[in-house]
Write a structure and sequence with these properties.
Blueprint lengths: L5 H17 L7 E6 L6 H4 L33 H13 L4 E6 L5 H15 L3 E6 L7 H12 L5 E4 L11 H9 L3 E5 L3 H6 L4 E3 L11 H10 L3 E3 L1 E2 L3 E2 L1 H4 L4 E2 L5 H12 L4 E4 L17 E3 L2 E3 L16 H18 L4
Parallel strand pairs: 1-2, 1-11, 2-3, 3-4, 4-5, 5-6, 6-7, 8-11
Antiparallel strand pairs: 9-10, 12-13
Helix pairs in contact: 1-11, 3-4, 10-11
Amino acid sequence: MIGVPPMRYAYICVLVLALCASGPAAAGTVVSSFYYPWFGTTTTDGDFAHWSQGGHSPATGDIASNYYPALGVYSSSSSAVLGEQMLDVARAGIDEVAVSWWGKGSPEDQRLPAVIAAAGQRGIAVAVHLEPYRGRSVASTVADVTYLQALGVKTFYLYRPFDLPAPDWAPANDQFRAQGVEVFAQTAMVGAAATGHFAGVYTYDTLVYGGGLFRRLCKQAHARGLLCAPSVGPGYDAQRATGDQRVKSRRDGLTYDSMWRAAIRAGADRVTITSFNEWQEGTQIEPAVPLKLDGFRYPAYDGAWGLHGTAAENAYLTRTAYWAGLFRRAAAKPRA
């Protein structure tokens, strides 16, 4: 390809082969990834947002993450950034991005139309991840869903739904279902999700909810007529952003593989990925580059699946395409 760097060309070739091998998606099968449009820079937005947590100085390359993005310290307001990200999402075999949303008027809300436009150019669906903004209630969530439906959003993931009583959600979810809207509850408590008349469950937190939970979760969900959308992820490391000492090692890609394998074996209806670009918590699969700065080394994904240096930058996107293909083939087979 003219103008395409050799490593990028190799990455594209691998992804094309993976996607072609996967075949068409089974009916109702979705691979979704949680996506964060909350990053800001001084040049584009007037200030750094989310890169400077914990007293870091993004202008010098010092960011609130243990990894450094291949796109650099970017702004989620940039159309060029959105275009590149959605191209990566599509090449990774991801059908849907679940966009973090913190209420009407928030930066995430203001950027949502641009995300929808960029995703639409690549044939990617957009869902909304309804976050627990201050004052969120059942009534405000109904208003939020109505507002977001006008943008074409039909699928919602509700984070921490049981900050409010489960039965309180039932009338709202009945209303949503009548409108053709699906709302998934972030929980491993299937009974509570059923009581709240949610369409399904997802787990999001891959540190707390490991792959060993997935078989039971999906079995219980299916028994109650709910969809099962367990969340897989590469690992977790938020030390530089928040000081959280809990770490879930990536194990050179084995953590991601094991969670995908568990989700497929559990008979998941859809797979949710935590995350595409939550850099602060180190759950991202977005391309990363190695960088050494003032004694700190951003390792990128060095060692993942035996890859090193620049060859490892796109490792998690390539592996996502591989697992997405396996998931679709498994879902196309009749269940025993």
